[in-house]
Amino acid sequence: MSADLRVVGFTEAHVPLRLAVQVADLEAQAWPGSTPGHDPALAPRTLLLVDGEGTVAAALSLLRKEIRLGGRTYRAAGLSSVVTRTAVRGQGLGGRLVAAARAELAADPAVDLALFSCDRPLAAFYEAAGFVPLPGTVLVGGTPEDPLATDAPGFDKAVMAAFFTGAPARDRAAFTGVRVPLHPGSIDRLW
């Protein structure tokens, strides 16, 4: 892998085939048996850390939807399918890509917050990229008829966020210690 790495982004439907194949391979290694791709209704955007030879070092997806909470509607984005090539793990490349994703979301006036869950041992990784944990918060994914919550038996999830609104402290308080009706659907049951 060459040293000249850059972040590139595409709508999921427009990821060049050579890169899409690599992303699918990385995801299959990380999550055997998973189906690649995301629900188009969530406006998936793929961010990649790519070297000068076109090798994908790390990948993630950004998903979007509106969330109603506390009488307000928030425009939320979530990180999904964050993966780093096994051969280059431990070099800070995944963190670099996650920080770039946070910066992109912070600069987007159509995003009020980033909100997602991760395995609890990965919370510090996301904190290093600028996200904060929301203690006691539970994301309720799936659909209202078939929910999947981050506090379901067998899950050990942390909920992470970044707030880009005019009153981030107020909005962080609104999302802390509550059950958030994320409901991204039956394809991306949680992000």
From TrEMBL:
This is GNAT family N-acetyltransferase. Keywords: Acyltransferase, Transferase. GO terms for molecular function: acyltransferase activity. Pfam families: Acetyltransf_9. Its EC number is 2.3.1.-. Residues 5-153 form the N-acetyltransferase domain. It is an enzyme of class 2 (transferase). InterPro entries: Acyl_CoA_acyltransferase, GNAT_dom.
